[in-house]
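Hi V.,

Quick status before I head out on leave. The structure for the redesign project is tokenized and pasted below; the design run finished overnight.
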């Protein structure tokens, strides 16, 4: 795979050696909370996930201002490394890049599930320190 920087083609291995900018810093006391579904709840599908953030302004991913970010949901999967970008096009990772604060999960099968919400910067890197919340719930038959 090749990466283009300033008109030069680099292999992905060479591009990995280039310095990366640091992820955006979260404001002091920044938090995110999954307000629905409730922790430990048994719910019917589809499942609406709602999020509330404080100490950080939730905006579209195109907004690069300090003190801002957007939500990412990790559905039944672990969070990616906190010093890397959250990948797109991966099953179970949902980018709410338009600044949404809710999302409907319409394809969860009956049984236990886990959702982790992570606030990321405009480059889809987790804010530092990590701004995240986890909820476990069950979808009934």
């Amino acid at each position: 795979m090749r990466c283009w920087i300033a008109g030069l083609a680099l292999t992905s291995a060479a591009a990995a050696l280039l310095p990366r900018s640091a992820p955006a810093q979260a404001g002091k006391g920044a938090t995110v909370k999954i307000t629905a579904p409730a922790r430990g709840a048994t719910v019917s599908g589809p499942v609406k996930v709602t999020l509330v953030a404080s100490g950080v302004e939730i905006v579209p991913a195109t907004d690069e201002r300090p003190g801002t970010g957007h939500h990412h949901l990790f559905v039944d999967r672990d969070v990616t490394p906190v010093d890397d970008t959250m990948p797109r096009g991966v099953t179970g990772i949902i980018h709410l890049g338009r600044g949404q604060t809710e999302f409907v999960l319409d394809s969860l099968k009956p049984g236990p599930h886990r959702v982790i919400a992570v606030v990321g910067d405009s480059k889809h890197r987790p804010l530092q320190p990590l701004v995240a919340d986890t909820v476990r719930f069950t979808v009934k038959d």
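Above is the designed sequence. Residues 12-16 form the longest helix (5 residues).

G. will cover questions while I'm gone.

Best,
W.
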